[in-house]
Amino acid sequence: MNLLIDIGNTRIKFAIASDQIVETGFLPEFSEIEIDKLIRQKGGFNSCIVSAVRDLDQGMINNIKTRFSNFLILDENTMIPVKNNYQSKSSLGKDRLAAIVGAHNIFNKSHVLVIDFGTAVTFDLLEGENGYMGGTISPGLSTRFRALNEFTGKLPLFDKKETDLFIGTDTESAIITGVQNGMIFETQGYISYLEKKYPGLKVILTGGDADFFAKYLKSTIFAEPNLVFIGLNTILQYNA
Q1: Rounded Cα distance, 21 and 46, in Å
Q2: Each residue of 187-202: pLDDT tens digit?
Q3: Which of 19, 55, 95, 164 is catalytic?
Q4: Which residues pair with 203 in a beta bridge?
Q5: What domains lie within the chain, and their CATH numbers?
Q6: Cβ-based burial of 189 (10 A; exposed 0-12, middle 13-18, buried ≥19)
Q7: How far apart are CA 190 and CA 95, in angstroms?
Q8: Residues in a beta bridge with 205
Q9: Comparing C-alpha atoms, which of 109, 117, 62 is closest to residue 83?
Q10: What's this model's pTM, rounded to 2 decimal places?
Q11: What is the pLDDT of residues 109-160, one digit of tens each?
């Protein structure tokens, strides 16, 4: 079995996989103690891959890797089964890279737009056989709500809320509709533009807010919450 670990901006997620994702969960921290606890609870693992948005302590990594016959830290030098045309590969988010590989695994040579709704919302384009072309990064849903609260004098903090309103009638509904509809129009705009350029474009949504936005989009989309893990597992097998 393979252990897949995704260290993000706010949470540490793990998955257990063979050829398919078997189980997912969360870790309170990335440490030798938590990895050993997971091994005791779930049984032994042959291989492990780690994707992280931050630098990891090398001494801890050296100790953890002794638990596995095959251990991989995803970085810009890791071999992947997709041509990567991104110019600044060292600064490309590893979760974005894994998601692109996951999309390639699912749709092979198709044109694919991957939209990841997390702390940031990212749009990444896979152009068939030409590979990964790049993408965009903008603030995610919770980040936009927090920005209005933190960078203004009196605007309160709200959270996402399902609503059919287009125009707010008070401060709460004005903020909620403004933030959410802004992201909906932004997302639909990217999709509509790229659908004209790439007929047959596949659109995959992933990330914590993917299910929330899926119901508001007009285009045909695929929601895959485990897209990053599918990519990590593919990369791990590709480097075996």
Answers
A1: 15
A2: 999 999 999 999 999 9
A3: 95
A4: 113
A5: 1-73 (3.30.420.40), 75-240 (3.30.420.40)
A6: exposed
A7: 20
A8: 115, 223
A9: 109
A10: 0.92
A11: 899 999 999 999 999 999 999 999 999 999 999 999 999 999 998 999 999 9
